[in-house]
Amino acid sequence: MPDDPRARRRTGTGLGVLLALVCAAVLLTALPDHDREGGGACAARTFTSWKTDRRLTDEFARYGDDPARTDDWTGGDGTHSLRLPDGRVLWLFSDTYLGRVHGPPNPVGESYAWRDTTAPLVRNSAVLMSRSGRLERTLPAPLFPDPGAGQWRWPVAARVEPRSPGSPDRVVRVLLWTRAAGAAPWIYGVPTATEVATLSLPGLRLEGVRTVLDQRSVADASRRVLFGTTTLDEGDWTYVFGGTDAQATARPTSTAYVARAPRGRLGEPGAWEYWDGSQWAARARPAPVLGDGRRRGVGSAFTVVRDGGTYVLFTMAAGTRGLTTVTSYWACSPTGPWRGPARGFSPPLPAGEVAAYNPQAHPALGADGRLVLSYDVNWLDPTGVSAQANLSRNVSLYRPRFVTLRLGPPR
Asked: Could you give the number of structural domains in the chain?
């Protein structure tokens, strides 16, 4: 090839342009993303440290062990909380034991408090906590009546909203999962619908229940989506996350979905929109935003918080680690893409064949920059006779436990 100075100049110019483009691409990749829904700066976030919260854990043990009443909460799961306008905290639970707690020791000589095996079990309950953080009373249970024979309601996330748009009168909206009894493998019931209940304030009287998304027409029950495991207010919208029971045993290989409603309008089914994979649309078939059925996925109950411009999702880890380990994902939008899973942590568990599940954030209870996270504990086979006997023999096996987390960049 001839030694042409003009060719060398042209080649040098081309290489310079290419190098500039490459550098620009690297810089753009390194810069934080921006939330497609609102414009906040976004960067990778996960938990950087955690510690047990003995105060909250012990408060539920104190209240559950109090023998003064026979119609109050002694244990439950599905732990969700809501700060009420007067400062009280409303705690919502799914399957709940009522009755009296005895001991210790228990009838077989162990140093555990225990309940009689005939203690009432209701499908849902609500417990009120004072502004000072002391649990005070159980509302008449079940708070949400069964919709029919062989069916029940589990309360999940809740928000305080105007009774109607622009109204000064406020109410509590509680999202409900409706389930129906089913044969194995649906040991936790077959998912059927998402509903919204309205409670009065300040008395918390049930005023009514409306169906938001009926899933009974979806033939494959593992593809039915129930919304309300967690909610977030952002801008003009309330985002509502949900999931499937891709495996009926609730292992963390389910898929996550997201819907939204204008703020203050959760109780209006026609106001809801669903992410269909490319846009928000009413009456659309929701598309998953997270989950591949293997390494990446969520439990049917998970939680999402916002830290600056970043959304952080906490769930039990996939596989056998999902019995003991909480992990996280992060995204710059409720619709994803969700990055992760990040490294996990294993919170304390009582002795025995037990599992942790349903991590839930309680933003109203955090302080000093720390996030409060609860997790539920149960015997590994909660459907067996031996499991029920163990839950009665040791009442601490079926109560929420709490940790506090600090969020920051991954290390």
From this structure: 1
